[in-house]
Amino acid sequence: MTELDNAVAVVGLSLRAPGASDPETFLAQLSRGEVALPAARGERTGNGRLLSGQIDRFAEFDAELFGMAPAHAALTDPQHRVIAELVWEAMEDACLDTTRAGNRVGVFIGGGPDIYLHRNVLPDERTVRAHGTEQIMLGNSRDFLATALSYRLGFTGPSMTVQTACSTSLVAVHQAVRSLLTYECDVAIAGGITVFPVERPEHDGPEGGIYAPDGRCRSFTVGSRGTVPSSGAGIVVLRRSADLADGPGRARAHIIGSAVNNDGADRMGMTAPSPQGQAEVLREALEVSGLSPADIGYIEAHGTGTVLGDQVELAALAEVYGTGTAAPRCAIGTVKPNIGHTDSAAGVLGLIKTVLALQHDLLLPVASQPGDGPDADLGADRFFLPRAAATWSAEVPRRAAVSSFGFGGTNAHVIVAPAEPVPEPAPAQDVRPPVAVLSAATPQALRDKAADLAGWLDGPGARAALPGVLGTLWHGRRQLAHRAAVALPTDPAAARERLREWLRETAKRADTPPAVADAPVAVLLPGQGIHLTGTAASTADDPRFGADLDRLSAAVLRAGGPDLRGFETWAADDPRRLGTAVVQPLLFVVGLAHLWRLERRGVRPATLLGHSVGELTAAAYAGVFDVEDAAAAVVRRGELMGRAPAGAMLAVPLDEEAARDLADGLPADVCGVNGPGTTVLGGDPDTVTELERRCAARGLTARRLETAHAFHSRAMAEAAARLGEFLATVPLSAPRLTVISNRTGAELSAEEATDPAYWAGQLRGTVRLADGVRTLLAGRPAAVVGIHGGRALTNPVRQSARLLGLAHPPGIIELLGNSGADESQAYEDALARLWAAGCPVDFDVPQVTSPVPLPRYPFAHTRHWIEATPGALPHERPAAPAPAGREPAPPQEPSAPAAVEDTTETGSDLASTITAIWQEAFGGEPLGPSDNFFTLGGTSLQAAQLLTVVNDTLLLGVALGDLYEHSDLGSFIRRAEELAADRDDAELLRLLDEIEGVQ
Asked: What's the whole-model pTM score?
């Protein structure tokens, strides 16, 4: 066995401490020995009290990211909110998206006292009235600190709040380690938080108390007189070390042993420390790790700076770790002189400091401060206090320990080993163009994310390997609603430049609709006359696509059709590209192979619209024909149409009626109606020549199509009859998904699909593409994909969407790009746009062994806060407004509902009152009639409270079922107006008078 066989890896971390909101800043601060407490900056109060340590960003919160209504965010304890953002950052640091990986994630966290509840929330009568005590407690009680987090982030492992005072967060780490090693979860989140909900928290420092009277913590120095309370928070993400050995993932360090105990009754009092209890927990953790005391070269001590606390801790350390004159040197440190005592977060912040020290091979100093006395007697010759940062030398063992001792006697000790760097495997040769993806909860966050990444690439990330960047973006970030993606060139330099360019474009782009889960996709399949591209490059990129082409080409050959093998190499002027008997089977083969390829990549079309022979391809994919029968039908159709009399087709810029007028008196037919101003006419060559002359005379620009026949005209009557006879021998089935009919422009019915006469008529009749496009758009697809090169089929969709005035038109995508584009890159770029629309596209991005430290998620700078009620708790100031940020937003003050004295108010008054009540319940932007209770984030508890307020205010009897049935604000108001109209106000007033008389 090795020491990592039963070890747990620290794979991600995040923090907020005085002076630092990220690990890099924290490490730099500690390396320089900086003190981030107010006393070190010379800050004082005017009332004789001392200033405590405070963190940044405790009043601001990204409510939308976590699915919270603004009013809910405001009533929620900032500790719940800060910990949610830190868990988000830590999971990104770990490069884990557990929603896709399917990991069971456990949560083990603890928090500080619920000051915000008693100081800000409960004294606010409007908040209590609007939300009720049950909802308020969900957002403030420590009972729900872990479980609310699991709910918001979808974690399904054990979820529990751990509370042991100052040792809370290290005890939580121990619990998480045990949960991982007993396979209760695959990933564990552990940590703690304490936040004082005021901008400048204050405390007293009486002589002899636990708080230093000069506002400085001087742990392990002679004359130290106490600690300094601070806000702080830290999170670590843990996985079994053995799991990393079998797959991708990075460890910052490994926890190889941990223990927890309690001092019991063998001490002076409940809050007094016990050297025996502390020594026992140290020994137990060492035994679990399999190490000896001499193997430990650094101990991150609890080190509060109190006289008794430091003496007891040093005695316990000397008893366990100080024995043996030949033992190597061992440094003792503590983070509290730098940032103060962060209470429930103290242990995890000490662990994070130690992990960073091991990872970066640094012995971090104990901060020196003006007024320090000499170093205290540490109790053992091997112990020393580092006073300057230094590389971990060979004479100091590279194993560490972390202690945290709780007020009340619960002690925790953790043994930590360094993680060996894992070399990144040599990047595989890209077969496909690589893809970069970004996503965020809001359009603004997406723009900010793009801008941050662009700046990082030009700065700290200038030398980062692009595969690592793209792999981290794909595997290590949740896929949120607002998305952007792009395919990059395969050349590394060109890819990097294109990525920078795209990020700058994305940082400036306008708002776009959010992605739709499993976005409905409509696919357009070409008919004859539409240029085919992309096949050769696609075959090279995807061998399975090549195999599908071979399979379908063989089916065509078995049906007596042309030999299509090697068609990718045919010259542009090869006459086979114009032969109907060749082109129609070729369109079928290429179209169906592309549909199967899309499906393998995660895109399953919901609607298919094929042009002419493309409808048969659509029908084959939808199960109307099996593959062999479809190939035979297309071969027979192409042969029959190819034998038809010579003809021509002309696209004219007219609607159908005007086109018929143009052809009046000529043996011409309307072959296709492609749009409001685009119609295709067909006839014999002389007729089409005359049509061209008439167009020229009217100043119309007409275009001859590259065909040798007048398809979908009277010239096809014989071919249609023969095809119908052939299909009478072929089994036909109802379509399994939506296929749009060329003949009607509506959805192909089961009766039509299984009728040979329909398919015969489809060959002869007008192709009503314009009607089909309108039907397609009525289905509200998120994206429309044309399986062809150029825009011959996609432009009619663009035009129709514009004429229909769609508020949110679908993304319209050419799968094979446009003329001159790199076909492989165009294909991957099309898939990138489909992913951005919400399709579960598989880009097969290689895993990254060492995730790249990309910029953190750009949380919204929106202040969610209920101001303190004066006198609720003395000597505290309310939080100051948020500093200007990317999304400056004023506090959302809920509107108070109008006072209701006259119960016979008008409908308008009733609507205003109900709207005000809803607004107060949810906060945020002004609500409108279409806003839905559940979409806004309403819960069953909130429903009960809202109905109580509505009924008490308006003297109504709105029931829970009424809200469920009428969940839009406008509908709810109408239901309330119905109830008010049915109310007997005279009887109600009589009852009120009777009640008042009793009183």
From this structure: 0.89
